[in-house]
Structures are given as C-alpha cells and as structure tokens.
Design a protein that fits this description.
With 275 residues, the chain is α/β, with parallel strands linked by helices. It folds into 2 domains: 103 residues, Oxidized Rhodanese, domain 1, CATH 3.40.250; 150 residues, no CATH class. It contains 11 helices and 10 strands. Helix 6 runs parallel beside helix 8 and helix 6 packs across helix 11. The protein is globular, with a radius of gyration of 19 Å.
Length: 275
C-alpha cells in the first residue's frame, strides 16, 4: 500500500477515465460547496467527508479510488488517509476540482431538473427495451463510464418500459416519450451527452460513430459500418441481454481509447517507419 503515491495530478488522472479500469472517483467537497456547484467531475460520486465512517465500509475493495475536494488540501487528504487505513487503494486529486477545471477535464451537469437521482443517492437505475443493439449498449457505456459508475440497467419488453420505470424508480431511455431518446437526426447517446453537458473531443468522435450506426447513416464516419456489424454479431452470440451488455462495454472502451488517440495516429500514419 505504501508504494502507491498518495496524490495524482489532473493531467495523469484524465487519461484513465472511460474504461473499466478507471478509478472510482469520490467527490468529498463539503456539502455547501458541492450544492453550490453546477457540475461534478465525470463519473464521480459525492460522499460527505465528515461522515466517512458511515460509507467507507461500502467502498468497493477491487477498485482504485481517487478522492477530491475543492483545492486538494486537508479534506481530500484526510479522507484518502482514512481510506488507506481500511485497506483501500486510495489517492487524492492534487489541486482538487480547481486543478481539474484548469486541465479541462470532463465534467457532467449536476441538476435535479434532469430527472435523475441525486449523486448522493446512488446507484441509479435505467430501463429500456430488451434485445439491445447499438444505442441501448452505447448509452449504458456512457452512463457507467461518465455519469454513474454504479448504475444498474434493466431490459424489458418494449411495451413495459414506461410502466417499469415508474414501478422500479428507474430512468427510461431510448423509447418514445423518454427524456433520453432520439431527437430529430440524433440518437439517445447524443441526448445524454447534450443534457449532461459532457464536453470531451473523444466522446464527440464516438458520438458520430454511434449516431451513424444507429440511424442508418454509415457515411457519418468510416467506423459506423464496423460498429453495426459488431453489434449485430454480439446480438447473435448472446441470448442474455446483460451478458451482451458486458461484452459490448469492451467494444466501446476500445472505440473511446481509439478516439482519444485517433488524431495522433492519423498524423503519424504517413511518417516513414510507422505501421
């Protein structure tokens, strides 16, 4: 445990987001500071720093954890130490959310008007039609990687989505009448990005691929046809929707990782000696 550095910079944390290996982010700003801010670091959970004894025991032991406060001073350092004392692989964000903002790290909107459960009351539940193909795999990936890392997903017959949403206190998506659904020529993936104010160049690249594959417009990006083929293949391989979801998450992890490096790879493609 002692070999793990206590702090991590925003510059080194940002590239870790967007995959199953990303650390769990915990916002430990004082309640008044948390409530006054309109955004939270993408995928972060808020926890009261002065009641850590109540929630530390529920932290997952198999994941790295990064905590942050406003400036990266005593609050996050103290919580980080408490986490390490109970065996968690914890670090604190150097410079806190202030440093994250300076690095233009991805954030999401924190607004009850969105109709989602408060970050304090995690995990959220999301419900949609069974037999997912593209949007209904891409959306869970976006939610779990950037909105709620503990989110639960429910698949039901198409006619049962809205009633299921009410009975299970779940958020419906990718169905008519749901807030997060198709809007004009955009898909549900776009709706989530827009409403949560998620600004990330790599996400924008991925959004075009998802939109083209999901709406029958493969000309939007060269990768659209490939995503469509892989999605249909996953559907053929897996009768269980949740198993398909877990396999599909890896596909979007890979696409997002590629999107983050696409510009560099493209620039190097014509250089001698490059593959």
């Amino acid at each position: 445990m002692d070999t793990i550095p206590l702090g991590i910079s925003a510059k080194h944390l940002a590239p870790l987001l967007g995959s199953q290996h990303a650390p769990l982010l915990v916002d430990v700003r004082r309640a008044v500071e948390f409530e006054a801010d309109s955004v939270i670091i993408a995928s972060a959970l808020w926890r009261d720093p002065f009641r850590s004894d109540d929630w530390l025991k529920f932290m997952p032991r198999h994941r790295d954890v990064v905590v942050y406060c406003v400036h990266g001073h005593e609050i996050s350092k103290n919580v980080c130490s408490a986490m390490r004392n109970v065996g968690l692989k914890a670090r604190f964000l150097e410079g806190g959310k202030e440093a994250w903002s300076h690095e233009n790290g991805p954030t999401i909107r924190k607004d009850a008007a969105l109709g989602i459960p408060s970050q304090v009351n995690r995990p959220s539940k999301w419900i949609t039609r069974a037999r997912p193909k593209i949007d209904r795999i891409a959306c869970p990936w976006l939610i779990r990687r950037f909105i709620d890392p503990l989110a639960e997903f429910i698949y039901v017959p198409a006619g049962e989505v809205m009633t299921g949403a009410q009975s299970l206190a779940a958020i419906p998506y990718d169905v008519p009448g749901a807030r997060f659904s198709h809007r004009g020529d955009q898909c549900s993936f776009d709706a989530l990005i827009g409403d949560f104010h998620l600004h990330d160049p790599a996400i924008d690249v991925l959004a075009a691929i998802v939109r083209g594959a999901d709406t029958g417009k493969p000309a939007l990006a060269p990768q659209c046809a490939g995503l469509l083929a892989i999605s249909m293949g996953l559907s053929a391989l897996h009768a269980d929707d949740h198993q398909m979801l877990e396999e599909g998450m890896i596909v979007y992890d890979a696409l997002y990782a590629w999107a983050r490096t696409a510009i560099i790879e493209t620039q190097n493609a014509d250089m001698p000696g490059q593959p």
